[in-house]
Amino acid sequence: MQRELTSPKVLMLLSGGLDSTLATKILLDQGLNVEALNFTTPFCLCDKCTVRRVVKMFKIRLHFSAASQDYLDLMADPPHGYGSQMNPCIDCRIYMFRKAREVAEKINAEFIATGEVLDERPFSQRRRAMLLIEREAGLEGKVLRPLSARLLPETEPERRGLVDREKLYAISGRRRLPQIELAEKFSINDYPCPSGGCLLTDPSFAGRLRDFLKHEDRLAFEDVTLLKLGRHFRVGESKIIVGRNKEENEKLLHIAEKSDLPFLELIGHKGPITLLKGSEKGNGIIEKAASITVRYSDAGGEAPVMYRGNVDRVMTARAANEDELAKWRINF
Fold it and tell me: What DSSP designation does 110 have?
């Protein structure tokens, strides 16, 4: 059924997960004119297909917003600190809400809504953190969380009668049984299983990022792409990145050619593309990179390796042993 154009408009932060899908349904059932905003960062593991599926199911308009360089600068030095790994969830949410406020103002939305559940996440979904985030984003009292609203202070849209508080919910905690039961009630069957949606909470990726920020001045989008690829080793101030499969080799080769970075590859054997970042002088960095390249190839003990940099050259390299790899491998 087409909603009346005079219905109050709300901007829903939509991830495509169960919580934000349920929150959208709750507000649609109250007759509101819902438009969705999907916010993405280079660390997101969210599936765009699920977002589009929800939008299609509910026949609502979708907006996109992507993080820019100021987001990466913020992630490198977050005022409110990190969570269990390198996840600056509070500052990330503040940034996201500020972007949402800009979109809401542009489309004349009366308020913003999210699928957040009180105490579902330990860092950003505590009551105190939720209120701090909306206050610092300039949205105090203007963020409605339909799944937990009755456990939180009354919001401006509730006071104004734009939504009926009695038809909102009082869900809290990490158990998802209430959401699953609500999905059954709403006949919502096709939703993704819960999982970590951010690389910054992954210990392996967090270790790589921690190492990067220790040695580099500024994090850029190209750096995030490389942090997602291959095996990572550190020799002095140089970084060695070794492809793990054909797809990663192709991506590393593309980055090397696009950014004019030196790289190594095996001659006459199957093996990885190895990217070299940092100084090529001192520490025998090229030779060490070559030995790592041979180690992850099918060549065995020794093999010829082509170095492509300022001056191309071929060298015979011995495969690095486990003690050497352990010394150079970025720990996480």
Answer: S
Same domain assignment for residues 17 and 145 = yes
* Contact status, residue 37 vs residue 13, Cβ threshold 8 Å: yes
**One domain, residues 285 and 146:** no
pLDDT in tens, 23-68: 999 999 999 999 999 999 999 887 777 899 999 999 999 999 999 9
Provide the number of structural domains found in the chain: 2
Residue 288 is assigned to a structural domain of this protein: yes
Asked whether residue 224 is assigned to any structural domain, the reply reads: no
Q: How far is CA 91 from CA 7, 71, 173, 178, 237, in A?
A: 33, 9, 22, 28, 30
Residue type (1 letter), 301: G
Domain membership of residue 257 as a residue range: 229-328
Which amino acid is present at 96?
Answer: M
- The per-residue pLDDT for range 159-180, each reduced to its tens digit, is 999 999 999 999 999 888 999 9
Nearest to 120 by CA among 130, 112, 111: 130
Q: Are residues 31 and 164 in the same domain?
A: yes
Please report whether residue 324 resides in a domain.
yes
- Of the listed ranges 74-78, 123-127, 165-169, 248-252, the least confidently predicted one is 123-127
Indicate which CATH number applies to the domain containing 164: 3.40.50.620
Q: Is the distance from CB of 35 to CB of 10 less than 8 angstroms?
A: yes
Q: Report the alpha-carbon distance of residue 275 to residue 309 in Å, rounded.
A: 10
31 and 162 housed in the same domain: yes
Helix (H, G, I), strand (E, B) or coil at 300: coil
Q: CB-hemisphere CA count at 13 Å for 129?
A: 21
Which pLDDT band holds residue 332 (cuts at 50, 70, 90)? low
Confidence class of residue 278 from pLDDT cuts 50, 70 and 90?
Answer: confident
- Looking at residue 161, its pLDDT comes to 96
For the CA atoms of the chain, what is the radius of gyration? 25
